[in-house]
């Protein structure tokens, strides 16, 4: 006979076990940065110009390929039992920006996620199978490449950001290193953005064991790194972050929320299980800023933001994770639980998502009110003078004395 306390324990265990077993993963979005690459550009005095890199500037390295192969293996292990063991085109959709490094990162990742087996092996000597990666021309990319340059209001916000106390204080505090960069690199103009570019170049060179110039000390690199991270924060934060998100990363967040909503619908839910997005550090930053979970540090190579949709007894919840280059951390949406109910997730993220982004990108008329008033005043004065002159002419023509005199002269001339 089972004692009452033991019976209650077993009953609770059974109930809890049932609840846990009913919680199931429904859908996953994975956004990652490409892997290790060569520099995007070289500064004028850089001893390592484009010819120093086997494939030129901005290209994925073998290290980057391995990073994404490892990430693919991590995803395979994490989603064992959720994803089919072999590639199923209905379960996964992959999209990348139209850059070599992001396309190749996606392909290396898929090699780790879907090693071929059985009938999918087309060559026993090749442990790889092709999986489609979709893209659009960069001129048409509005989902994965931020910040987008088609938004006048965002450009205005960035100019206003540069006038904030925080921005001016950082610029003043690091004036010595900014001046050093100007003197040593041959750049005519050094700003937070150009200093960020110099750091990126020096970092890439150090990762590939190239000797740095004498002026590049550990202290200088530390200061440049701070300026680079600050530059990331200014793109999507520091000043009016919600509005910046609505004009930039909120576009991607809106698409993700739309997909989550569709996947939670029993009637319209497709067979898709994994949406994989291959992009850039600024893409990861833009999304995390719109979610208010950005940690202020540039996402490293092959870093990955994961959004998972779960179903539990008929209700849906969202969990988020961030994997830097090695460790996985769970992220918490501000104002919600770690396992955030889908409806709460949608309500909390709504302020960062624009209903009409193109309209919000237009410059407000508030800044031109003064000019409008002045233009109206000048136009009014001109109109008044025109009316006055017209009245004067009419009066002159209707004066009897002036009319007879005018006619007399004409008659005299004619005679």
From TrEMBL:
A Pfam short name: His_Phos_2
Catalysed reactions listed for this entry: a phosphate monoester + H2O = an alcohol + phosphate
SUPFAM superfamilies: Phosphoglycerate mutase-like (SSF53254)
Keywords: Disulfide bond, Glycoprotein, Hydrolase, Lysosome, Membrane, Signal, Transmembrane, Transmembrane helix
Main location as per UniProt: other
Location of the protein in the cell: Lysosome lumen; Lysosome membrane
MF terms (GO), sorted A to Z: acid phosphatase activity
Leading EC class: hydrolase
Protein EC: 3.1.3.2
GO terms under cellular component: lysosomal lumen; lysosomal membrane
Gene3D superfamilies: Phosphoglycerate mutase-like
Record-level GO BP terms: lysosome organization
Membrane topology: Single-pass membrane protein
Signal peptide residue numbers: 1-21
Superkingdom as given in the UniProt entry: Eukaryota
Family in the record: Belongs to the histidine acid phosphatase family.
Descriptive protein name: Lysosomal acid phosphatase
Protein species of origin: Neogobius melanostomus (round goby)
């Amino acid at each position: 006979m089972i004692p009452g306390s033991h019976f209650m324990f077993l009953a609770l265990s059974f109930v809890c076990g049932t609840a846990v077993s009913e919680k199931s993963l429904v859908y996953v979005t994975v956004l990652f940065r490409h892997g290790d690459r060569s520099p995007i550009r070289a500064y004028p005095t850089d001893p390592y110009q484009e010819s120093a890199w086997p494939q030129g500037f901005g290209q994925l390295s073998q290290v980057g390929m391995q990073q994404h192969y490892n990430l693919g293996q991590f995803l395979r292990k994490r989603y064992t039992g959720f994803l089919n063991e072999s590639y199923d085109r209905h379960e996964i959709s992959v999209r990348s920006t139209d850059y070599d490094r992001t396309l190749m990162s996606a392909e290396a990742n898929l090699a780790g996620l879907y090693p071929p087996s059985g009938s999918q092996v087309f060559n026993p000597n090749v442990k790889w199978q092709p999986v489609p990666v979709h893209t659009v021309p960069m001129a048409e990319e509005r989902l994965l490449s931020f910040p987008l340059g088609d938004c006048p209001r965002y450009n205005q916000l960035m100019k206003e950001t540069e006038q904030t106390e925080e921005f001016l204080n950082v610029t003043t505090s690091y004036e010595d290193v900014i001046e050093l960069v100007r003197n040593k690199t041959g750049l005519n103009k050094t700003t937070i953005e150009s200093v960020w570019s110099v750091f990126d170049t020096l970092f890439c060179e150090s990762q590939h064991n190239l000797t740095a110039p004498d002026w590049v000390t550990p202290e200088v690199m530390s200061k440049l790194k701070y300026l680079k991270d600050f530059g990331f924060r200014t793109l999507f934060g520091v000043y009016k972050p919600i509005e910046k998100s609505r004009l930039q990363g909120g576009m991607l967040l809106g698409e993700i929320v739309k997909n989550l909503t569709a996947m939670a619908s029993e009637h319209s839910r497709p067979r898709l299980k994994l949406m994989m997005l291959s992009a850039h550090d600024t893409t990861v930053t833009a999304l995390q800023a719109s979610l208010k979970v950005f940690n202020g540090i540039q996402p490293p190579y092959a870093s990955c933001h994961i959004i998972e949709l779960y179903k539990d007894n008929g209700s849906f919840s969202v969990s988020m994770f961030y994997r830097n280059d090695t460790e996985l951390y769970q992220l918490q949406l501000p104002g919600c639980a770690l396992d955030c109910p889908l409806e709460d997730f949608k309500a909390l993220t709504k302020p960062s998502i624009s209903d009409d982004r193109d309209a919000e990108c237009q410059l407000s008329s508030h800044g031109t009110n003064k000019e409008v008033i002045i233009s109206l005043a000048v136009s009014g004065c001109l109109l008044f003078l025109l009316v006055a002159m017209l009245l004067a002419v009419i009066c002159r023509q209707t004066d009897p004395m002036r009319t007879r005199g005018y006619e007399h002269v004409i008659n005299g001339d004619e005679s």
